[in-house]
Amino acid sequence: MPSLSTIEPDEPAASAAPLRRHLLTRLAIGLPLLAVAALGFTLTSLHGRESRDFERRATRAPGTVTDLMKEEASFIPHIEVSFQAGARVIVTRAAVADRGAYHLGQVVTVLYDPSEPSHIVLDTDRYNAETPFLFWAAVAVGGLLPIVFGWWWVRRIRRLAERPGTAFAVRATVADLRPRRWNRRRRWVVLHALDAHLPPPAETGGGPSANGPLPVHPIGSYPLMTGVVVDRGVGLPTEAKGSLRPGGLVVARVGDEIAWPRRRLRG
Known about the structure:
Blueprint: H1 12-15, H2 17-57, E1 59-67, E2 78-85, E3 88-95, E4 107-113, E5 116-122, H3 130-162, E6 168-177, E7 186-192, E8 220-223, E9 233-242, E10 250-254, E11 257-259
Antiparallel strand pairs: 1-2, 1-4, 2-3, 4-5, 6-7, 6-9, 7-8, 9-10, 10-11
Helix pairs in contact: 2-3
């Protein structure tokens, strides 16, 4: 049996299109997350810079919690604080992370802008950029992973298909399957040994034929990559490269088409 042919210069439109589609899908998933992460990093940096500038010019003063403002309908909790700013007594709101950490009459340290005393920050609730940076870093990693793994997968299966060497002669059943309830119904390639008894299409799903030997257990199966066009059929002559075992990486050619795998061989 000849080896899987490499993708010749006149074939890429038909053979490589599913690979490009696979990469574009991963880019469509990852790039928006990276864009959101970049925006988050930018806003966090700007907010952190503004907070540091405010703290440098702020004046410290002791204050007293006068109202916990539990009835306030706001996404960010606030408390009311009274403090002395020069000759004036200022009563204003301060944003806090946890309203429950304060009680009425509690003495707190207030940082206020001398030019605008109503603009205050409590010393214990100063802006900490570490938490949002970690969050946006996780979002960025979530955007990078599908791109990196998508590129890695396409590179591996393409190199396997183009690698010189002898391919295994097997038979394949191509059908729309949903192996598990949580799987999406898609076209799968099931590989069988060359001498396996395969029931005709009318008997598939109904057990072994009445007079023939029992069907053998398949070598394994894998879902086709989106965009691969392979006709359905039973016992199709196939050549396959790779590791024909559960968890192995396999690329098969069914007819004139390379049946690019979406994942590794499942036993």
